[in-house]
């Protein structure tokens, strides 16, 4: 599936946010998985938080990370379903300068093999805000693994050809100068 050229790998500075009214740092398996996967791939974990499912809390945390020149990509897990308190899409869509429509479509396509037609209830999405990528994933550990292994590992790798997300984020040199 991937075509890795001889280009040099460029590690990204990333943050992980878990959105949950029930999980704690002790049982946040989805956040743990994302933090482990991104570091194993050679990226840097710059920040990690766990917050309750609240539109304004979500916007505050993500807005801070979008404004932080040291953070190039954010992985959000949780709050993308259809239950009453699931509000990640509503909270974050207004912050995006551009949406990455294909991300949610591809995630649901890959998810079909695992959970069947229930995948239509996933509101996974992604966007670009202030040259920071934001990926909103379901809260299940299996869904986070699927997103990482099926999409994110390649698209956050500067060596993936014919294209990847890396040119769309702030370069570390740009971050250091403002």
List the helices and strands and how they pair.
Elements: E1 3-4, E2 13-19, H1 29-40, E3 44-51, H2 55-67, E4 73-77, H3 88-92, E5 98-99, H4 101-115, E6 125-129, E7 132-137, H5 141-155, E8 160-161, H6 172-176
Parallel strand pairs: 2-3, 2-4, 4-7
Antiparallel strand pairs: 1-8, 5-6, 6-7
Helix pairs in contact: 1-5, 4-5
Can you walk through the features of this model?
The N and C termini lie far apart (36 Å). The chain is 37% helix and 21% strand. It has a single domain, classed as 3-Layer(aba) Sandwich (Molybdenum Cofactor Biosythetic Enzyme, Chain A), CATH 3.40.980.10. It has helices at 29-40, 55-67, 88-92, 101-115, 141-155, 172-176, and strands spanning 3-4, 13-19, 44-51, 73-77, 98-99, 125-129, 132-137, 160-161. It has a six-stranded mixed sheet, with helices on both faces. The longest helix has 15 residues, at 101-115. It is an alpha/beta fold.
Fourth-tier CATH superfamily name: MoaB/Mog-like domain
Order of helices and strands: EEHEHEHEHEEHEH
Number of helices: 6
Shape: globular
The name CATH uses for the topology is Molybdenum Cofactor Biosythetic Enzyme, Chain A
Decide which structural class fits the backbone: alpha/beta
Output the strand order for the largest sheet: 3-2-4-7-6-5
Strand count: 8
Largest sheet, if any? Answer: 6 strands, mixed
- Approximate helicity band: 25-40%
Strand content: 15-25%
Rounded to an integer, what's the Rg over CA atoms? 15 Å
Tell me what the CATH architecture is.
3-Layer(aba) Sandwich
